[in-house]
Amino acid sequence: MCGIVGYVGDKPVAPLLIDGLRRLEYRGYDSAGLAVLEGGTLTVVRATGKLKALAVKVEAEPPRGTVGIGHTRWATHGRPSDDNAHPHRYGGVAVVHNGIIENHLALKAQLRAKGHAFSSETDSEVFAHLVAEALQGGRPLPDAVRAAVAQVKGTYALVVVAEQDPDCVVATRESQPMVLGLAQGESFVASDVPALLEHTRDVVFMEDGELAVLSRTGILLTDRAGKKVDRPPRRIDWTSTMAEKGGHKHFMHKEIHEQPRAVADTLRGRVLLSEGDVHLEGWNISADEARKLTKLTLLACGTSYHSGLAGKWMVESLAKLPVEVELAHEFRYRDPIVESTHLAVAISQSGETADTLFALREAKKRGAKTLAVCNVVGSAMTREADMTMMTNAGPEIGVASTKAFTTQLVSLYLLAIKLGRLRGHLTAEGARTHFEQLLHVPKLLELALENEPQVKAVAKAFHTAHDFLYLGRGPMHPVALEGALKLKEISYIHAEGYAGGEMKHGPIALIDEKLPVVVLAPREPQVAYEKIVGNIEEVRARGGKVIAVVEQGDHHLRELADHVLEVPASSKLIAPMVATVPLQLLAYHVAELRGNDVDQPRNLAKSVTVE
Ligand code: AGP
């Protein structure tokens, strides 16, 4: 995600900001910028690409002030470019923003009507305009920021400077992290602790709705109502590497725990509860075209392919549209049958996977309409597809995909609802029932994460095993495949994922008392549950060790299995998201106990840009 640094003091601010941003580089970004105030004059410098490009521009004409704000941007609204880079400036105001402004289009329209012109494609720029407007009434900057955020719907970590109030920096947040750094004669603000550690270890974590005014004499923190907040600072003793990982030992662990937040970001702004519809930016398939669709082809590799397999369940059941899920590298070389009534969807975290990109091109060349479901704005697939749907998981650094998978599942669920509504197979009321379940997913993931100690104990019992078998039926089959992939990627233990029904057609021969068998056994769908219980009996009869992923309160399976990993109960299309959590944690803890490099497993690359 984006990084923020702000400073008020007596040191030259430009190099200090660049250094702070450098310490947030691990988060990933595609452009950077800073704004410096000197004697009531604002200078803004921005550059696409790495911080080096910004540093070169700054060195050519160094801004000399000691008050300023800086930002590294990971694109969400608008491609990576100098114009879309932060800070955004308007009328003597400069802002940096992390988060998403859901009502930016409506706000821009109102501001345009008052004569405002916008210079970027971002949602964030609207803040600079709102603050500038609010300052016109002669308000002090903190009040103007309050007035601006009161008009906004969405999430933000927002830091503002203004020529009108040149000795302070104002920061506020809503559902985005923000931390204040305290020191003698100077004050700091940042989106993350690593940016501050060089200067201070005394920090205050801001809460939602709070507003901080930073000056050389200290920081005034107030709550939503404007009342002073006295929160004692915390002394941080993390090393900078620990701080980068937010206190987690590995990025993968951090990313597994980020899933509730990531899924909330995927849903944000897309669920139109009152209309019973899904809002997808740039969507250009009419109801008539949607009804004429004859096939949906999902193209992907690896983890993204597994999310496609689960997506097939969603789209076929909600939109009654036949779905084919294709390994992208196979599709491309098969002389596939593609028609103009097909919608081809490339699913990819990176948006750069060569196999998937080439398959997308092939589908487009052969006449299909194309959609890219990606996590990286501006990536090749988002540039080439007719439409794009961002998963909004934030940068994924661990090579093993985790939050990318769950957010892809949520995206495909939204796509299924959208198509179901357009094709007339889902009423507004029906869509609302699915929304209720989807909006509950962040909470369900949190509950699943709470059972980590249970998973850790199982990892301890089996981390020396040579092989694992994963079984799932129906929508749990892709989860079994994903669980096995996760384990082999980072623990280097041989693991196979199978549909439960396939067991007696071969894999049953593998079962002996040394084989751990992970069985996905949520209660929904009921028919799959009954059959998977049968699989458990078969494994036990041959001495295999059953690790069952079960719904909380399933006493029957608790008795039957050797170990259980409990997850909260959910519906059949949500259960794959929830049941994935213990499997990610199991792979993580097994790999950790084996002393492997969890974030950078051998022979693997995060983005496979060659065939
Ligand atoms: C998953 O843990 C792997 N890193 C890998 O299977 C990955 O999902 C695959 O290479 C596809 O990548 P993409 O989603 O970036 O296209």
Describe the SSE topology.
Blueprint: E1 3-8, H1 13-22, E2 31-38, E3 41-48, H2 51-60, E4 67-73, E5 88-90, E6 93-98, H3 104-113, H4 125-135, H5 141-149, E7 156-162, E8 169-174, E9 179-183, E10 186-190, E11 202-205, E12 211-215, E13 218-222, E14 234-235, H6 240-244, H7 251-257, H8 259-267, E15 271-272, E16 277-278, H9 287-292, E17 295-300, H10 302-319, E18 323-327, H11 328-332, E19 342-348, H12 354-365, E20 369-374, H13 380-384, E21 387-390, H14 403-422, H15 428-439, H16 441-450, H17 452-462, E22 467-472, H18 477-491, E23 494-499, E24 516-521, H19 526-541, E25 545-551, H20 555-560, E26 563-567, H21 575-593
Parallel strand pairs: 17-18, 17-19, 19-20, 20-21, 22-23, 22-24, 24-25, 25-26
Antiparallel strand pairs: 1-4, 1-10, 2-3, 2-4, 5-6, 6-7, 7-8, 8-12, 9-10, 9-11, 11-14, 12-13, 15-16
Helix pairs in contact: 1-2, 4-5, 8-14, 8-16, 10-14, 10-18, 14-15, 16-21, 17-21, 18-21
Describe the structure.
The protein is α/β, with parallel strands linked by helices and 611 residues long. It is 37% helix and 23% strand. The chain has 21 helices and 26 strands. The strands form five sheets. Strands 3-2-4-1-10-9-11-14 form an eight-stranded antiparallel sheet, covered by helices on one side. The chain is globular. It starts with a strand and ends in an 18-residue tail after the last helix. The site of 2-deoxy-2-amino glucitol-6-phosphate has 15 residues, from helix 10.
